[in-house]
Amino acid sequence: MSASPSSPLVALGWREWVALPGLRIAAIRAKVDSGARTSALHVDAQWRFVEAGAPWVGFRLTPGENAATIECASAIVDEREVTDSGGHTSLRAFVRTPLRVAGVEREIDINLTDRHGMAFPMLLGRSAMARVFTVDPARSFLHGRVAAATGTPPVTPRT
């Protein structure tokens, strides 16, 4: 389902399971953060290279505790300084990829960074939610766990 301007906003909890199918991530826990402008994805390692004259980034990540490590490559759509919640600024590569959550799929820009030690490997920022989603900060996992590629049923949502 794609969202349209006339569709009502879809409520998300303060944390949700999301999928990034363009990166072969069937399910990853994300903190839904309307205070963050951009979305961020934890990567274990990243490297830059040039493909057909354009800048690309290769990266490796493990989307969950028992998940297999995934290696990806994507064109860099932007590169800019991002200030984290601790006030530290770093230059980050941004990639564009489909996001799937709550039955909605849309393209988002996401920056790649080291979120080691954070409770959530992904941060879903307000630019990815604009005009489609709203956040209910009193609830979490409103849409259950995204069904894995194995066809397992979604986990029952918790509040």
Automatic annotation (TrEMBL):
<protein>
    <submittedName>
        <fullName>RimK/LysX family protein</fullName>
    </submittedName>
</protein>
<dbReference type="InterPro" id="IPR021109">
    <property type="entry name" value="Peptidase_aspartic_dom_sf"/>
</dbReference>
<dbReference type="Pfam" id="PF05618">
    <property type="entry name" value="Zn_protease"/>
</dbReference>
<feature type="domain" description="Retropepsin-like aspartic endopeptidase">
    <location>
        <begin position="12"/>
        <end position="143"/>
    </location>
</feature>
<dbReference type="InterPro" id="IPR008503">
    <property type="entry name" value="Asp_endopeptidase"/>
</dbReference>
